[in-house]
Amino acid sequence: MAALLLSSLAGCSNVGYYWQSATGHLRMMSAARPVDDWLGDTQTPERLRDRLALSQRIRNFAVSELMLPDNPSYRRYADLQRPAVVWNVVAAPPYSLTLTQSCFPVTGCVGYRGYFDESEARAEAGRLAAQGQETSVYPVPAYSTLGWMNWAGGDPLLNTFINYPEGELARIIFHELAHQVVYANGDTMFNESFATAVERIGGKRWLETHASEPVRREYEQYDGRRRQFRGLVRATSDTLRAIYEQAGGEERGKLKQEALQRFREDYAQLRASWPGEPARYRFYDRWVAEANNASFGAQAAYEELVPGFEALFAREGGDFLRFYDAARALARLPKAERHQQLKSKESSGA
Protein backbone atom coordinates (compact mmCIF):
# COMPACT_ATOMS: atom_id res chain seq x y z
CA MET A 1 0.00 0.00 0.00
CA ALA A 2 1.40 3.40 -0.93
CA ALA A 3 1.34 6.92 0.35
CA LEU A 4 -1.30 7.17 3.08
CA LEU A 5 0.40 10.12 4.78
CA LEU A 6 1.30 11.91 1.58
CA SER A 7 -2.30 11.74 0.42
CA SER A 8 -3.62 13.24 3.60
CA LEU A 9 -0.99 15.96 3.77
CA ALA A 10 -1.59 16.92 0.17
CA GLY A 11 -4.55 19.13 0.88
CA CYS A 12 -7.46 17.01 1.98
CA SER A 13 -10.41 19.28 2.68
CA ASN A 14 -11.52 17.08 5.58
CA VAL A 15 -9.61 18.45 8.57
CA GLY A 16 -10.46 15.41 10.68
CA TYR A 17 -8.99 13.05 8.12
CA TYR A 18 -5.88 15.24 7.81
CA TRP A 19 -5.42 15.26 11.58
CA GLN A 20 -5.82 11.52 12.15
CA SER A 21 -3.41 10.74 9.30
CA ALA A 22 -0.70 13.12 10.44
CA THR A 23 -0.90 12.33 14.14
CA GLY A 24 -1.21 8.59 13.53
CA HIS A 25 1.90 8.54 11.39
CA LEU A 26 3.88 10.66 13.82
CA ARG A 27 2.94 8.36 16.70
CA MET A 28 4.15 5.39 14.69
CA MET A 29 7.43 7.10 13.84
CA SER A 30 8.04 8.12 17.46
CA ALA A 31 7.50 4.52 18.61
CA ALA A 32 10.23 3.20 16.30
CA ARG A 33 13.75 2.43 17.51
CA PRO A 34 16.77 1.30 15.48
CA VAL A 35 16.87 -2.47 15.00
CA ASP A 36 20.37 -2.55 16.49
CA ASP A 37 18.94 -1.11 19.71
CA TRP A 38 16.35 -3.88 19.89
CA LEU A 39 19.00 -6.51 19.16
CA GLY A 40 21.23 -5.16 21.90
CA ASP A 41 18.45 -4.87 24.50
CA THR A 42 18.46 -7.81 26.93
CA GLN A 43 14.71 -7.27 27.43
CA THR A 44 13.94 -8.02 23.78
CA PRO A 45 12.26 -11.45 23.53
CA GLU A 46 14.39 -14.04 21.75
CA ARG A 47 11.80 -14.65 19.02
CA LEU A 48 11.58 -10.94 18.23
CA ARG A 49 15.36 -10.69 18.19
CA ASP A 50 15.54 -13.55 15.69
CA ARG A 51 12.86 -12.02 13.47
CA LEU A 52 14.54 -8.60 13.48
CA ALA A 53 17.88 -10.16 12.58
CA LEU A 54 16.15 -12.00 9.72
CA SER A 55 14.52 -8.76 8.56
CA GLN A 56 17.92 -7.13 8.20
CA ARG A 57 19.26 -10.00 6.13
CA ILE A 58 16.20 -9.61 3.91
CA ARG A 59 16.71 -5.83 3.80
CA ASN A 60 20.34 -6.26 2.69
CA PHE A 61 19.24 -8.79 0.05
CA ALA A 62 16.75 -6.21 -1.28
CA VAL A 63 19.66 -3.84 -1.96
CA SER A 64 22.28 -6.28 -3.22
CA GLU A 65 20.09 -8.61 -5.29
CA LEU A 66 16.92 -6.69 -6.18
CA MET A 67 18.54 -3.25 -6.54
CA LEU A 68 15.95 -1.70 -4.24
CA PRO A 69 16.83 1.53 -2.39
CA ASP A 70 19.57 1.50 0.26
CA ASN A 71 18.15 3.99 2.76
CA PRO A 72 16.86 4.13 6.37
CA SER A 73 13.53 2.40 5.62
CA TYR A 74 13.02 -0.90 7.50
CA ARG A 75 16.07 -0.35 9.68
CA ARG A 76 13.90 0.54 12.68
CA TYR A 77 11.12 -1.34 14.49
CA ALA A 78 7.97 -0.29 16.35
CA ASP A 79 5.42 -2.27 18.35
CA LEU A 80 2.11 -0.48 17.82
CA GLN A 81 0.18 -2.74 20.24
CA ARG A 82 -2.51 -3.35 17.60
CA PRO A 83 -2.98 -5.85 14.75
CA ALA A 84 -2.84 -3.38 11.83
CA VAL A 85 -1.08 -0.12 11.13
CA VAL A 86 -4.16 1.28 9.36
CA TRP A 87 -7.56 0.14 8.18
CA ASN A 88 -8.43 0.87 4.57
CA VAL A 89 -11.90 1.86 3.43
CA VAL A 90 -12.88 1.08 -0.16
CA ALA A 91 -16.22 1.61 -1.87
CA ALA A 92 -17.82 0.78 -5.22
CA PRO A 93 -21.26 1.26 -6.83
CA PRO A 94 -23.82 -1.57 -6.69
CA TYR A 95 -23.08 -2.66 -10.29
CA SER A 96 -19.40 -1.92 -10.81
CA LEU A 97 -16.03 -3.11 -9.48
CA THR A 98 -14.49 0.33 -10.07
CA LEU A 99 -13.47 1.78 -6.71
CA THR A 100 -14.63 5.23 -5.65
CA GLN A 101 -11.67 7.60 -5.83
CA SER A 102 -10.29 10.13 -3.35
CA CYS A 103 -8.10 12.74 -5.06
CA PHE A 104 -5.17 14.73 -3.69
CA PRO A 105 -2.76 17.23 -5.31
CA VAL A 106 0.49 15.30 -4.70
CA THR A 107 -0.43 11.64 -5.12
CA GLY A 108 -3.40 12.03 -7.45
CA CYS A 109 -6.50 9.85 -7.08
CA VAL A 110 -6.45 6.63 -5.09
CA GLY A 111 -9.15 4.02 -4.54
CA TYR A 112 -8.97 3.92 -0.76
CA ARG A 113 -8.77 5.96 2.43
CA GLY A 114 -6.63 4.78 5.32
CA TYR A 115 -7.45 5.30 9.00
CA PHE A 116 -5.25 4.65 12.02
CA ASP A 117 -8.37 4.00 14.12
CA GLU A 118 -10.59 1.11 13.05
CA SER A 119 -13.73 2.74 14.44
CA GLU A 120 -13.14 5.82 12.30
CA ALA A 121 -12.67 3.60 9.25
CA ARG A 122 -15.96 1.83 9.92
CA ALA A 123 -17.72 5.15 10.45
CA GLU A 124 -16.48 6.31 7.03
CA ALA A 125 -17.66 3.03 5.51
CA GLY A 126 -21.07 3.60 7.07
CA ARG A 127 -21.25 7.09 5.59
CA LEU A 128 -20.46 5.76 2.11
CA ALA A 129 -22.94 2.88 2.51
CA ALA A 130 -25.65 5.41 3.37
CA GLN A 131 -24.98 6.96 -0.04
CA GLY A 132 -25.78 3.63 -1.69
CA GLN A 133 -22.25 2.33 -2.19
CA GLU A 134 -20.92 -1.11 -1.29
CA THR A 135 -18.03 -0.82 1.15
CA SER A 136 -15.24 -2.88 2.65
CA VAL A 137 -12.91 -2.22 5.57
CA TYR A 138 -9.73 -4.29 5.80
CA PRO A 139 -6.58 -4.23 7.95
CA VAL A 140 -3.30 -3.14 6.40
CA PRO A 141 -0.01 -4.39 7.90
CA ALA A 142 2.25 -1.79 6.23
CA TYR A 143 2.22 1.26 3.98
CA SER A 144 4.81 3.28 2.13
CA THR A 145 5.57 6.99 2.27
CA LEU A 146 7.39 6.61 -1.09
CA GLY A 147 10.73 7.50 0.49
CA TRP A 148 9.62 10.98 1.48
CA MET A 149 10.14 10.21 5.17
CA ASN A 150 13.63 8.70 4.93
CA TRP A 151 15.03 11.94 6.34
CA ALA A 152 13.10 11.17 9.55
CA GLY A 153 14.14 7.53 9.83
CA GLY A 154 12.15 5.97 7.02
CA ASP A 155 9.25 3.55 7.10
CA PRO A 156 9.70 1.16 10.05
CA LEU A 157 9.28 -2.55 10.52
CA LEU A 158 6.15 -3.20 12.59
CA ASN A 159 4.69 -5.80 14.90
CA THR A 160 1.83 -6.06 12.39
CA PHE A 161 3.99 -8.15 10.05
CA ILE A 162 7.32 -9.02 11.73
CA ASN A 163 6.07 -12.54 12.62
CA TYR A 164 4.85 -13.36 9.11
CA PRO A 165 6.28 -16.56 7.56
CA GLU A 166 9.79 -15.92 6.27
CA GLY A 167 8.79 -15.76 2.62
CA GLU A 168 5.92 -13.41 3.40
CA LEU A 169 8.13 -11.13 5.51
CA ALA A 170 10.53 -10.87 2.59
CA ARG A 171 7.70 -10.13 0.16
CA ILE A 172 6.16 -7.34 2.23
CA ILE A 173 9.53 -5.60 2.63
CA PHE A 174 10.19 -5.89 -1.10
CA HIS A 175 6.67 -4.65 -1.91
CA GLU A 176 6.87 -1.51 0.19
CA LEU A 177 10.40 -0.67 -0.98
CA ALA A 178 9.22 -1.06 -4.59
CA HIS A 179 6.85 1.87 -4.08
CA GLN A 180 9.94 4.05 -3.55
CA VAL A 181 11.24 3.07 -6.99
CA VAL A 182 8.25 3.64 -9.29
CA TYR A 183 5.04 5.55 -8.59
CA ALA A 184 2.46 6.88 -11.04
CA ASN A 185 0.22 9.61 -9.65
CA GLY A 186 -3.41 8.64 -9.54
CA ASP A 187 -2.99 5.02 -10.67
CA THR A 188 -3.47 2.62 -7.76
CA MET A 189 -3.67 -0.44 -10.03
CA PHE A 190 -0.37 0.35 -11.76
CA ASN A 191 1.44 1.11 -8.50
CA GLU A 192 0.19 -1.89 -6.55
CA SER A 193 0.61 -4.30 -9.46
CA PHE A 194 4.21 -3.14 -9.96
CA ALA A 195 5.01 -3.60 -6.26
CA THR A 196 3.29 -6.99 -6.25
CA ALA A 197 5.37 -8.11 -9.23
CA VAL A 198 8.58 -7.05 -7.46
CA GLU A 199 7.56 -8.83 -4.27
CA ARG A 200 6.76 -12.06 -6.12
CA ILE A 201 9.95 -12.10 -8.16
CA GLY A 202 12.08 -11.07 -5.18
CA GLY A 203 10.33 -13.40 -2.75
CA LYS A 204 10.91 -16.37 -5.03
CA ARG A 205 14.61 -15.53 -5.27
CA TRP A 206 14.95 -15.14 -1.52
CA LEU A 207 13.36 -18.51 -0.84
CA GLU A 208 15.43 -20.25 -3.50
CA THR A 209 18.78 -18.86 -2.34
CA HIS A 210 18.48 -18.12 1.39
CA ALA A 211 15.67 -20.12 2.99
CA SER A 212 15.93 -23.62 4.45
CA GLU A 213 14.11 -26.53 2.86
CA PRO A 214 11.49 -26.70 5.68
CA VAL A 215 10.82 -22.97 5.27
CA ARG A 216 10.40 -23.39 1.51
CA ARG A 217 7.98 -26.29 1.97
CA GLU A 218 5.94 -24.42 4.56
CA TYR A 219 5.74 -21.34 2.39
CA GLU A 220 4.85 -23.33 -0.72
CA GLN A 221 1.76 -24.61 1.10
CA TYR A 222 0.93 -21.15 2.50
CA ASP A 223 1.28 -19.41 -0.85
CA GLY A 224 -0.36 -22.25 -2.77
CA ARG A 225 -3.58 -21.82 -0.84
CA ARG A 226 -3.45 -18.08 -1.34
CA ARG A 227 -3.05 -18.57 -5.10
CA GLN A 228 -6.04 -20.91 -5.12
CA PHE A 229 -8.13 -18.36 -3.26
CA ARG A 230 -7.09 -15.47 -5.46
CA GLY A 231 -7.77 -17.52 -8.57
CA LEU A 232 -11.32 -18.04 -7.34
CA VAL A 233 -11.65 -14.32 -6.62
CA ARG A 234 -10.39 -13.39 -10.10
CA ALA A 235 -12.80 -15.78 -11.78
CA THR A 236 -15.72 -14.34 -9.83
CA SER A 237 -14.58 -10.79 -10.60
CA ASP A 238 -14.60 -11.61 -14.32
CA THR A 239 -18.11 -13.05 -13.99
CA LEU A 240 -19.39 -9.99 -12.16
CA ARG A 241 -17.87 -7.59 -14.71
CA ALA A 242 -19.55 -9.47 -17.52
CA ILE A 243 -22.91 -9.32 -15.72
CA TYR A 244 -22.61 -5.59 -15.07
CA GLU A 245 -21.65 -4.90 -18.71
CA GLN A 246 -24.19 -7.14 -20.41
CA ALA A 247 -27.26 -7.45 -18.18
CA GLY A 248 -29.75 -4.87 -17.00
CA GLY A 249 -32.73 -4.30 -14.77
CA GLU A 250 -33.88 -7.02 -12.39
CA GLU A 251 -31.91 -9.68 -14.27
CA ARG A 252 -28.63 -7.95 -13.42
CA GLY A 253 -29.37 -8.04 -9.70
CA LYS A 254 -30.48 -11.67 -9.86
CA LEU A 255 -27.37 -12.76 -11.78
CA LYS A 256 -25.15 -10.84 -9.37
CA GLN A 257 -26.58 -12.66 -6.35
CA GLU A 258 -26.27 -16.00 -8.10
CA ALA A 259 -22.60 -15.31 -8.89
CA LEU A 260 -21.88 -14.37 -5.27
CA GLN A 261 -23.65 -17.49 -4.03
CA ARG A 262 -21.59 -19.68 -6.38
CA PHE A 263 -18.46 -17.94 -5.13
CA ARG A 264 -19.29 -18.82 -1.53
CA GLU A 265 -20.14 -22.41 -2.47
CA ASP A 266 -16.92 -22.80 -4.45
CA TYR A 267 -14.94 -21.36 -1.57
CA ALA A 268 -16.54 -23.77 0.89
CA GLN A 269 -15.47 -26.66 -1.35
CA LEU A 270 -11.95 -25.26 -1.66
CA ARG A 271 -11.74 -24.62 2.08
CA ALA A 272 -12.71 -28.22 2.82
CA SER A 273 -9.61 -29.37 0.90
CA TRP A 274 -7.26 -27.39 3.17
CA PRO A 275 -6.03 -29.25 6.25
CA GLY A 276 -5.06 -27.49 9.47
CA GLU A 277 -6.65 -25.49 12.24
CA PRO A 278 -9.77 -23.52 11.21
CA ALA A 279 -8.37 -20.34 12.81
CA ARG A 280 -5.63 -20.33 10.18
CA TYR A 281 -8.19 -19.47 7.52
CA ARG A 282 -10.27 -16.98 9.49
CA PHE A 283 -9.25 -14.08 7.22
CA TYR A 284 -10.45 -15.92 4.11
CA ASP A 285 -13.69 -16.96 5.83
CA ARG A 286 -14.48 -13.38 6.76
CA TRP A 287 -13.50 -12.04 3.33
CA VAL A 288 -15.88 -14.45 1.61
CA ALA A 289 -18.73 -13.80 4.04
CA GLU A 290 -18.47 -10.03 3.45
CA ALA A 291 -17.49 -10.10 -0.25
CA ASN A 292 -18.99 -7.35 -2.39
CA ASN A 293 -18.00 -5.09 -5.28
CA ALA A 294 -15.65 -3.05 -3.09
CA SER A 295 -13.66 -6.04 -1.88
CA PHE A 296 -13.44 -7.56 -5.37
CA GLY A 297 -12.37 -4.18 -6.77
CA ALA A 298 -9.68 -3.74 -4.12
CA GLN A 299 -8.21 -7.17 -4.84
CA ALA A 300 -8.07 -6.41 -8.56
CA ALA A 301 -6.02 -3.27 -7.87
CA TYR A 302 -3.19 -5.41 -6.50
CA GLU A 303 -3.15 -8.06 -9.20
CA GLU A 304 -4.65 -7.11 -12.55
CA LEU A 305 -1.46 -5.78 -14.19
CA VAL A 306 0.99 -8.13 -12.46
CA PRO A 307 1.31 -10.55 -15.42
CA GLY A 308 2.22 -7.60 -17.65
CA PHE A 309 4.96 -6.49 -15.27
CA GLU A 310 6.27 -10.05 -15.00
CA ALA A 311 6.43 -10.22 -18.81
CA LEU A 312 8.23 -6.86 -18.84
CA PHE A 313 10.79 -8.20 -16.34
CA ALA A 314 11.42 -11.19 -18.58
CA ARG A 315 11.72 -8.94 -21.65
CA GLU A 316 14.39 -6.93 -19.84
CA GLY A 317 16.41 -10.09 -19.32
CA GLY A 318 15.71 -10.39 -15.61
CA ASP A 319 17.77 -7.25 -14.99
CA PHE A 320 16.16 -5.27 -12.19
CA LEU A 321 17.66 -1.89 -13.09
CA ARG A 322 16.47 -2.19 -16.69
CA PHE A 323 13.07 -3.38 -15.44
CA TYR A 324 12.72 -0.37 -13.14
CA ASP A 325 13.70 2.01 -15.96
CA ALA A 326 11.11 0.41 -18.23
CA ALA A 327 8.44 0.70 -15.51
CA ARG A 328 9.31 4.38 -14.99
CA ALA A 329 8.92 4.94 -18.72
CA LEU A 330 5.45 3.38 -18.54
CA ALA A 331 4.58 5.58 -15.57
CA ARG A 332 5.20 8.66 -17.72
CA LEU A 333 2.58 7.57 -20.27
CA PRO A 334 -1.13 8.42 -20.00
CA LYS A 335 -2.91 6.00 -17.72
CA ALA A 336 -4.93 4.21 -20.41
CA GLU A 337 -1.86 3.79 -22.62
CA ARG A 338 0.31 2.33 -19.85
CA HIS A 339 -2.41 -0.15 -18.89
CA GLN A 340 -2.86 -1.19 -22.52
CA GLN A 341 0.87 -1.73 -22.98
CA LEU A 342 1.06 -3.93 -19.88
CA LYS A 343 -1.94 -5.98 -20.97
CA SER A 344 -0.46 -6.43 -24.45
CA LYS A 345 2.81 -7.64 -22.89
CA GLU A 346 0.83 -10.16 -20.83
CA SER A 347 -1.01 -11.51 -23.86
CA SER A 348 2.14 -11.67 -26.00
CA GLY A 349 4.34 -13.04 -23.22
CA ALA A 350 6.97 -10.42 -24.01
From TrEMBL:
Keywords per UniProt: Aminopeptidase, Hydrolase, Protease
Pfam families according to UniProt: Aminopep (PF10023)
Protein name: Aminopeptidase
One annotated GO molecular function: aminopeptidase activity
Domain of life: Bacteria
Family annotation (InterPro entries): Aminopept
